[in-house]
């Protein structure tokens, strides 16, 4: 078990920025969704997409889900 963790421990510094970017995008998209009165589609669907499809979901919402007011 220790040998397998040691093999992957070298990748942790590379994964941390990706995880922070993913979390930041998700939080930003959810806050933006909460502030908007109108979206393309129901808000509950966009919440599911943002949360379930980690990196792709927030990007999809920001590109396609927002409706200009």
Question: Descriptors for this entry?
Answer:
mainly alpha, 4 helices
Brief description of this entry?
By secondary structure, the chain is mostly helical.
**Helix count, per DSSP?**
4
- How many strands appear in the DSSP assignment? 0
Unreliable residue runs: none
Helix and strand sequence: HHHH
Helix-and-strand structural type: mainly alpha
Dominant shape: elongated
Distance between the termini: 54 Å
The major sheet is characterized as:
none
How many domains make up the coordinates? 1
Report the β-strand fraction as a percent range: under 5%
Which value, in Å, is the CA radius of gyration? 16 Å
Please tell me the overall pLDDT: 90
Give the fraction of residues assigned to helices: over 70%
Description:
- With 69 residues, the protein is mostly helical.
- The chain has one domain (17-65).
- 75% of the residues lie in helices and 0% in strands.
- It has helices at residues 2-9, 12-35, 43-52, 56-65.
- The radius of gyration is 16 Å and the shape is elongated.
- It starts with a helix and ends with a helix.
Provide the fold topology.
Blueprint: H1 2-9, H2 12-35, H3 43-52, H4 56-65
């Amino acid at each position: 078990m220790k040998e397998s963790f040691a093999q992957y421990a070298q990748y942790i510094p590379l994964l941390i920025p990706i995880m922070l970017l993913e979390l930041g995008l998700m939080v930003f998209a959810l806050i933006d969704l909460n502030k908007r009165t109108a979206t393309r589609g129901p808000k509950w669907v966009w919440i599911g997409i943002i949360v379930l499809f980690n990196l792709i979901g927030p990007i999809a919402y920001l590109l396609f889900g927002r409706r200009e007011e």
